[in-house]
């Protein structure tokens, strides 16, 4: 395989830039609060863009355009569901969670927040939630490493084993060095690169096919229903795709961005920035897949790679339509999407191991610098385990990820939502909701009942369990109610 020099150079410049940001973040990391949550001083722009970049991953530039290319515009229902879920997450959860984590013992992680919010002296909530995070996120990390390896393998003709390390090493280094600051700053750069790629590419594709009317004519001739939003979609299918939006309430890597903001007042501007970014990126991804149908119908000789694997459509369009230097920048956007998600997943796992196991059970009085270095070592540990899981690209890791989003959404989503909105919620309710949501997702997935996406029954089961067990068990203490009221008043103070 002939390797493009511009492609190599742009990738090297991009990776070096990320490492440089990691070095500057390392210089700015003074204590464990800095390493895990950036000292709670992230502004609106960084909060918004880092939340978006950590959310989307390689799915935005490969999975979604590929699905649209293969099945038509009806696959965009998932994008609609994600937009709705993200907006409600910003509106309902973001500011409230920022305030509540501060008023509940300055909690740095979700398990720490659950434990403090519900006065769980048994530490059962902390342990169960930390275990859920570690299991699902280690698998998530492995899938991200596989995606990065696939990109390096197909772009540079590397062996899979070499590509595995090439794709993961830079992310591990800057996460190890700079922690949350490095992850957030690099996410902001990566979000900019992603939106640049997803605005420029569909515009050039539309010009290449002669404009939107000509493209629509070709797509309609391609197959019946490719321009129909309801093609092959029944009520269950639409509800299932929209249901993806429920997952946002329980994703630890996104919620951590809210917890790290400099103030709950920053969320108003952050929501506008984040949602604008998300709308443009999702619309661009849909447009790449949709108008790519017309381009490759007009140029069948160039369609071999995309016919074999629809997820390569963005890669192939970038290589065909752009100068090699521009193509290198555009393909770096895929690496950016993969790295932004992988880095925050590594950090969330590290924080769970350090704060919720090491400090909580082994070294209660561990100092700031000790915890920073334990956190760094935990990044390496989780990364090594994820790489070992990813060594076989056919090991079904990616199959497990398909319901990891549902697992987090159903296990944590109802707990987070009601914990910041309902002061009568109790520790037993939180524990029951977490278990009911996770178990329902796992069982529903095995039986695929009614073809309904498992996050929907899981989320409903979690909500019901919280309400029932909070109503029949011991009431919250006066101190817990007082802390809730103070947090609520602080949130409403703007």
TrEMBL record:
PANTHER family (UniProt xref): SODIUM/PROLINE SYMPORTER-RELATED, SODIUM_PROLINE SYMPORTER
Function, in words: Catalyzes the sodium-dependent uptake of extracellular L-proline.
NCBIfam families given in the database record: Na_Pro_sym (TIGR02121), sss (TIGR00813)
Family stated for the protein in its record: Belongs to the sodium:solute symporter (SSF) (TC 2.A.21) family.
TM segment ranges: 6-26, 67-88, 124-152, 164-183, 195-215, 235-256, 277-296, 325-353, 373-390, 402-422, 429-449, 455-473
Top-level taxon of the source organism: Bacteria
Membrane topology: Multi-pass membrane protein
Segments forming a coiled coil: none
Subcellular location field: Cell inner membrane; Cell membrane
Alphabetical list of CDD domains matching this protein: SLC5sbd_PutP
Catalysed reactions listed for this entry: L-proline(in) + Na(+)(in) = L-proline(out) + Na(+)(out)
Protein name (record): Sodium/proline symporter
Keywords from the named record: Amino-acid transport, Cell inner membrane, Cell membrane, Ion transport, Membrane, Sodium, Sodium transport, Symport, Transmembrane, Transmembrane helix, Transport
Pfam families (UniProt xref): SSF
